[in-house]
Amino acid sequence: WRRSIISSIRNTNLSLIEWPVLGVLPGLLWNVWTDNIHGAADRTLKDYGGTFLFKGPWFANMDFIGTSDPLNAHHIFSKSYAKYRKGEDFKAIFEFLGEGIFNADGEAWKFQRQLLHSILNNEELQNHMTTTLKLKMECTLFPVLDARVGAEVDMQEVAKMFMFDNFCLWVLGFGYLCVDRHLDTFSCGKAYDDIEEAVVYRHIVPKGVWKIQRIFGIGSEKKFSTSIKVLDKFLYDVVKTKKQELHKEDKRLQHELLTQWMVADEREESSDKFLRSTDKFLRDIALTLISAGRDTLSSTLSLLLWLVATHPDVEEKIFGEIERVMIVMTRSARGTSRFLICKDDLHELVYLHAAIYETLRLYPPLPFEHRCATEADVLPSGHKVHKGMRMLFSMYSMGRMEETWGKDCMDFKPERWISDEGNIIHVPSQKFMTFLTGPRTCLGKAMSFMLLKFMVSSILWNYKFEMVEGHVVKPTPSMVLSMKDGLKMRVSKRKV
Ligand code: HEM
Q: Binding positions for heme (predicted)?
């Protein structure tokens, strides 16, 4: 039956009206989803020349247009950007992010974007991030890996916990290194995973169904309510402390993003200033920033480790490049530390940069994006859009299009990103949409490359990873691309 659903998606503009029992729908879709929804969507999009119309039951408001066409992307996210908003459905699904930038539209979004842009691109913040990252790797990540040498380790789990801990430190100023009452980032990380699971479910069942489940506290909605309480307790506690500390001059200079936000916001004048200083709003900002970075980076890190472990030629080139850069750079503390490339030399790691791009092309951490039409429109592909219709854009498919990437589009080949002169080739964002395109493009792209290059070069220099025999990597249904049964690897120390 699973195959028959997929083939009906392919052969018709899928109409589910005839399906008699609405209760069956969520279960069936869930199973298609768990059987690699991104791959299924990719095949469907290819069969339909990059765009298809999905018609749901008339009473469920589930119609949407799925697309991976670069011209449609440019139209929706850039040219006619004002006609396509995140919309109320998006806000309902992602309600746990509150009024943070992901859920904001219009003036509220503009204000947050401006402020966050200046905060995230601050050089001092970036220095602080690499310094603390180094400390964290030395005190938490490397001891964990050292203790598991020769044993089986789920590197996806390690990457997730490591990045959650780092983002708690960067956003809130608390993490494993600051042992105090705010320490319980482990249960918060778990709570966050449960929330994400509920959010995926909300994408594939009609709104009415999950709302009813919520009222009666059933299934993933039950987990959602419990987890949100765990997370909120932690966040509100920190927000209160940070607000009190804001009156102390030395605390105002701290680098954590929440404090930086409050200090920057103090200078701004606007009518909704009162709203922005409430505990709730500050909690939303903090959680949004943790969400923006934690999963995207842990997903990229674990997928890159997997691709490197299964492509020995790429591993050799990355390793060779680190060695070369290390020998040439006098600024590096060669031989005295396990961290050989300092922040200012990261730009020399061109091949690693290309390997990260290539990972993000094949496995975009956010595999799809959605928008809602505010008025009737026609897409460049000719598809008619009615007011209120949802657009689902597959970045996963876009990264695998033969027209853009050539016949070898399914191969992991970092070289495709490097020019004959040895520089990174620029691919326009409407063709490489991993960080989106248009006014809402990701604010953390440069920061992500900096952090990933710093982490990956240090990790690969010190450790070698091999796949555990028989472990199969397959995607799981989640908002952020991750591996269904984790990433089981065997770790050994390099003798360098
Ligand atoms: C590999 C890493 C990352 C990828 C692939 C990525 C991708 C994306 C994508 C696709 C969006 C658009 C989401 C939407 O509109 O619904 C986005 C937005 C955003 N990202 Fe990232 N991101 C990454 C890392 C980061 C990091 C580390 C930060 C910093 C904390 C960050 C901050 C943001 C912010 C603030 C937005 C909202 C922009 C807006 O709505 O105007 N991202 N990112």
A: 442
